[in-house]
Amino acid sequence: MKICPSVEEIRATVAGFRQVGESVGLVTTMGALHEGHLSLMRRAREGHDRVVATIFVNPTQFGEVADLAHYPSDDARDIDLLQDEGVDALFLPTVETIYPPGDETIVETIELANKLHGKVRPGHFRGVATVVARLFNICQPDAAYFGEKDYQQLQVIKRMVRDLHFPLEVVGVATVREADGLAMSSRNVRLTPEDRTAAVVLNQSLSAAEALVADGTTVDALKSEIRSIIRSEPRAVLRAVDVVAAESLDAIDGPVTEKIAIMLSAEFGSVLLIDQREITP
Ligand code: PAF
After folding, report:
1. What is the CATH number of the domain that holds 126?
2. Where are the alpha helices (DSSP H) in the chain?
3. Which of 3, 52, 165, 183 is deepest in the core (most CB within 10 A)?
4. CB of 128 closer than 6 A to ligand 1?
5. Domain limits at 34?
6. In a structure prediction context, what are the per-residue pLDDT tens digits for the chain, which is 281 residues long?
7. Residue 84 C-alpha to ligand 1 middle, in angstroms?
8. Are the C-beta atoms of 41 and 53 separated by less than 8 Å?
9. Residue 281 domain-assigned?
C-alpha cells in the first residue's frame, strides 16, 4: 500500500492507476478503523480495480475541542488493517495540508446541514461537506463509499456531489452491526461494559419500528413505540427520535406511506450514539 502524505503524491498515484485504465473507489475515514470501515473497503474493491482510503481527523466537524481531543487515533494499527484489506493507496494528510494557512473556503448544504443532528451540532455538517469536497477534489475517485449509519451525512454528501457536479458516484453501504445488533462505531470503545450491553436497545427499537411499519402505522405511533422501548433501558438518555422522508430529511406525519428514515440518538454515560434505519412501507 502506498502511503501518501501530500496532495501531489496521492494525485500522482491515482493518475498512475488511471493511465492504465483502472477505476478508483474511495473510502474516507477519520481512522480508528473498525469492521464497518473495512466493509466499505470491501464494497469499494468489488466495484473498482483500485481502492484508495483516507485517514484525516477533521477538526472542522468537531464542535467541542474536548470531543476532538478524545477522538481515538492509532495510525500504525489502522495502516496494518488497511494493508491486510489490500487497500492500494492511503492519503494521510496533516491539518495544514487540508486547511492551508489563510484558508477561508467552506462548503455547506444549507437546509440539509442544519436540521436534525445539525441542529444539536451546529457547523458539524458544514465541516463534513467542506472536508469531503476537498478529499474528493484531491483524490478524484470514480466512486466514494459511505456508511448508511451516518444517514444525514450520507444525504449531505449526495446533495453536495449533485449540486457541485462532482464527477463521481456516492454509494451508501448498509450499517455493519455487532452480533447483538449494536451498530459499529469508533465511539463504542468508550462505552463502559454496562453501557455497551445497554446500547443494544437502539437497534431493538428500530427493529420494532420496522415491524410496525410492515403492519401499517402512523408516524406518532412509531415515535411513541421507539421512545417507550428506549426509555425502558435506564442507562439510555434519549436525545432524539426523528422520522423523516428518506432523501429530503423533511419531517413527516400521519400514516407512513413513503420511504422513511428513522434517526435516533441517545447517550450512554458520556457517549452519544446514533443509529438509523431506512424503511419502505
Ligand atoms: O464519517 C466520517 O468518518 C467523517 O465524517 C468523514 C466522512 C471521513 C469526513 O471527515
Report:
1. 3.40.50.620
2. 7-19, 35-47, 65-69, 75-84, 95-98, 110-113, 117-120, 124-139, 151-163, 193-198, 201-215, 219-231
3. 52
4. yes
5. 2-173
6. 999 999 999 999 999 999 999 999 999 999 999 999 999 999 999 999 999 999 999 999 998 766 777 777 899 999 999 999 999 999 999 999 999 999 999 999 999 999 998 988 899 999 999 999 999 999 999 999 999 999 999 999 999 999 999 999 999 999 999 999 999 988 899 999 999 999 999 999 999 999 999 999 999 999 999 999 999 999 999 999 999 999 899 999 999 999 999 999 999 999 999 999 999 99
7. 22
8. yes
9. no
Instruction: Give the position of cell 462505552.
Output: 191
User: What residues are annotated to the active site?
Assistant: 37
pTM: 0.91
Ligand 1, atom 3: closest residue by C-alpha: 29
Alpha-carbon gap, residue 203 to 120, rounded angstroms: 22
Distance (Å) from CA 29 to ligand 1 centroid? 5
User: Which among 179, 199, 203, 172 is positioned nearest to 188, based on CA atoms?
Assistant: 199
* Contact 131 CB / ligand 1 (< 6 Å): yes
